[in-house]
Prior knowledge:
Strand order of the largest sheet: 9-8-7-10-11
Number of helices: 19
Order of helices and strands: EEEEHHEEHHHEEEHEHEHHHHHHHHHHHH
Mean pLDDT: 79
Largest sheet: 5 strands, mixed
Low-confidence stretches: 72-118, 524-545, 555-573
Number of strands: 11
Shape: flat
Distance between the termini: 77 Å
Structural class: alpha+beta
Amino acid sequence: MKISEEAVIVNSSRLKSVVWNDFDRVKKGETFAAICRHCKRILSGSSTSGTSHLRNHLIRCRRRSNNDITQLLTRGKKKQNTLTLTNFSYNQTPVKNELVTVASMNYEQGPKVGNINTGCFNFDHRRSQLDLTRMIIMHGYPLGMVEDIGFKTFVRNLQPLFELMTVSGVEADCMEIYKKEKQRVYEELDKMPGKVSLSADKWATDGETEYLCLIAHYIDDSWKLKKKVLNFLAIDRSQAEDMLSELIMSSLRDWDIDRKLFSLTIDNRTTYDKIVCKIRDQLSQHRFLMCEGQLFDVRCAASTVKLLVQDVLETSREITTKVRETVLYVKSSHDTQEKFEEIVQLVGINCQKHLSLDNPFQWNSTYIMLEAALEYKEAFLQLQENDPGFSMCPSSLYWDRLRAISIILKFFHEVSNVFVGNKHITANSYFAEICDIHLQLIEWCQKSDDFISSLALKLKSKFDEYWKKCSLIMAIAAILDPRFKMKLVEYYYPQIYGDGAPECIDIVSNCMKALYNGHAIYSPLAAHCQSAASVSSGSVVKDRLTGFDKYLHETSLSQNTNSDLDKQEEFKNTETVNSLHEAASDVMV
């Protein structure tokens, strides 16, 4: 429709819709038209056409400001079913005095016009882009989803004003968010008064590329255990120890925590021992490490248990294979399973455990399979007599060894649950479990059964490597638990070392004193101590150790606590153990 100069603008008091604030209604002859004041597009202005098409145009009009778009949608309807959401910033904390009221629609079994109330809503395009990027990061969605046709259609219908992003745009926003988050973590680590423990885990991809994931573990001012991923370092299998150690050191310097590092936990591999030694030597040169680095090299207890279990399963591979084939045969057909269930009732087995095949990559499932098979031993033997096709039933010797293996796996299964069952387990929880493993291996080594004793000797040889590296730091952590103090060490060491226990207890006690002194020198009370040291430094050290010895020999136990970290709260209540409070925050991670 063309509008000539003869067209006349109609001003009528009957034009009550808000859309006429953005349209001119003109008349030529008997025809009415509506001309957009922003883009000059001509639409029908007839009273029989209504105003819905005009509102839809204004929503999509690129030349029109969107500051007052909600007036086009509300149309004076009664406010109801509104939902108020708090606007969130990057760190997911609420922004004060910033509320967004979004549309709320009621749906029933069939189509129904929804009641919409948008309130005062200003569409923030940049915020929506960053929200989309954060969603992709949080849920691990592929970046290319923003270019999928279905996603584009959904977004256009949901918010026509949103400009669709490209993959490169999402990548840029990911880096922007990463830099802001990295700066926030950097500032948190910088302000933290205590030490940081570092773990390095190797990640492998489908290709040849491997990564070293560096994670910082620390306790913040409110005694909350924190864990932050610092870096994913691409590594090459051909890289020498010098290159890998320098790669880790470079990351520590980048985060400025090389001076704060307390310990390093890395993969249980012989090749990584040299890496730890090189990093420890570099840090020791600058006197960054406590106790001359004795507590620096820490190995993962859960990984050590897993390695021991792998040796058990490797030794019993033939037995495990037999049991797996046996269970598979029973479950191979419905008829066989029914026959087996009849035999179970016939021999009088009343067991709540169900036969199940294991996942060879999850040793816990193998233990569950073996344990259940033992309960149905008599049924398997009876099935072998009644079914000529069932020829894989374990022999009498295998059943005896299977029982021994099941007992060993049950022990490690219970210990493993302590290590991995709690997401926030602290170091003081490990000592008793590690000592129990040590004592149990000693007992198994003394068994008259050659199969058990030879297997136990193999396990103990591997465990001794872990004990040599980690027993000291575990003992220190137990001492700093006010429930135990020295009592737990004094209980276990005589059982482990016999007549050599007093000497080993002295080693732990001396290391604890050295750790205490190291924190006392750099504690907030150090200024006061240093002023007294100008008179007599020797007497200050003596007085400090006197208070510490009193703490070590207290016998009262504190049981009214809520969590492992909460037990350390009593350290905060007295200045005489201020340094122990600081030491505990470093050791407990």
